[in-house]
Design goal:
The complex is a heterotrimer of chains A (about 170), B (about 200) and C (about 150). Among the domains of chain A are: about 50 residues, no CATH class; about 30 residues, no CATH class. Helix content of chain A is about 55%, strand content about 10%. Chain A is built from six helices and three strands, in the order H-H-H-H-H-E-E-E-H. In chain A, strand 2 and strand 3 form a beta hairpin. In chain A, helix 1 packs across helix 3. In chain B, helix 2 crosses helix 7. Helices cover about 65% and strands about 0% of the residues of chain B. Chain B is mainly α and about 200 residues long. Chain B contains nine helices and no strands. Chain C has one domain. In chain C, the strands form two sheets. Chain C has a five-stranded antiparallel beta sheet with strand order 2-3-1-9-8, with helices on one face. The longest helix of chain C has 19 residues. The relative contact order of chain C is 0.20. The chains are: A mainly alpha (about 170), B mainly alpha (about 200), C alpha+beta (about 150). Chains in contact: A-B, A-C, B-C. At the A-B interface, helix 1, helix 3, helix 4, strand 2 and strand 3 of A face helix 2, helix 3, helix 5, helix 6 and helix 7 of B. Strand 1 of chain A pairs antiparallel with strand 7 of chain C, so a sheet runs across the interface.
Chain lengths: ~170, ~200, ~150
Amino acid sequence: MNAEFQLKLQAYFDGELSAREAREIESILAAHADARALLAELRRTTEVLISHEAEVKLPESREFYWSKIQREIQRQEAGSHSASMPRPSWSRFLMPSGAIVALVLAGWFGAFEMGWLSRGGRSPQIETYLADSGAMTYRDEIERTTVVWLSYPAENEFAHADPADTIR
Amino acid sequence: MTERPAPAPDDQAFVRAAQRGDMVAYEELVARHRDKIYARAYSMMRNEDDAVDLSQEAWVKGWQRLKQFQGESSFATWMTRIVINLCLDQLRRQKRYRAESIEMLDEESGGVERQMPVVTVNPTERLERTELRQRIDQALDQLSETHRMVLVLCEFEELEYKEIAKAMKCSIGTVMSRLFYARRKLAALLADLKKPE
Amino acid sequence: MNTSRFPVIYWTWLAFGFFLVTCVGGQVQAGEIKLEAQLIWGTNDEKSPDPKHKSVESKVAKKLKKLPFKWQHYFEVNRQQFSVSQGESKKIVLSKDCEIKVRNAGNQSVELTIFGKGECIGKISQALPKDELLVTGGNAANFTSWFVVLRQPD
């Protein structure tokens, strides 16, 4: 059983396949004992997990737990309604002082950044742009290889796989 | 698709009152469902303090969004979704673009074929329920956050693959790989459960 | 902000900070960087259905096989060498569905932007001295995969 079939079997177990695909899996199950065994394992694991979920109780009294929630609700509601307080006279120095500090820090960081960038192996900075996408990095120091694996939502690969749809 | 559940009559009355601004009614809802919401947060975060904080945050958010609750699901389910999203956001913040282990990259990218032999998970009624729950809890602790998350969303919340993919911001294929890995690892961890003599 | 009342000391600090940023900023390394980008297809099929695909060169193949991916075979779809001047970007078309844009960020660092089917998928900023390999990848149809491998060629 290859990994692709195993995932398809799991999808069958989870009711994620179309009727046609489910029938294909059922015919394979009828003919292969190892497939049936894997399905039985998935089924049994789920049954055990669901029927024996640990009973967890909140470790705080009702009153104490609620008092914190209530306080936060009231704080947020008060914050959105309160008028702005007049700013103290020394606050006019905040912005220019902050800008100066930011410039100095930027200068120092720039110095460090320049020194570091020439080294390989520093973690990459990644931005992803598709909705619901993500990235995972892996670094092999010996091979001096950095891998960035991009994951992004795709159509259900079982339902819509096109055999001709390879990278061209 | 599951049928639309009828809200418990009592919940419905309290929800309506809370939607009109009755905080006493909302406190009653919190009292009724606090353990369940906390338990879901705990199952994802595996940390009491985080679970308490996030469950409280969920209740605050629930109050703010109460007018949006139209009864499409039970109130408890609606609150559970809120706490799950908060937990996912928190976990995402904690592991943002961190270099992952080989195992995670391996499994994320499609995985090498799992040669794990099929195991029979065979806890029986004779095993003390408490002990069994503890064993399962310990086994869940041994999964990574991501694998535990996908298991919780699929097995306990009964979300479809595409809903899990949306919640976890990954592809359906990734959901399937993670779920398969989590289930097989759990089976292996529970395989040695035996009947007492 | 009333500058006539703004203490001199603040202007002094402002000037100092500006001086520091300028000095450091001025120390960027000039020069262009020569790069090679490969578009690679990962699969478990022994042969690619596209006769134009070639086997990946052994040095890169060896590194890919050491990574924890499931695919047994890697095929080179396209390979291009190009140079990018300091601070400049270059767009490279690797296939009808895959383009990359590479910016020379200076000091042997690059910013790689990947476009799939015309959409920007991701941007990766990474130091890339010689002998370093940057491998970006994702799932493709039928449980195969695509990779873009970027490096400074030998």
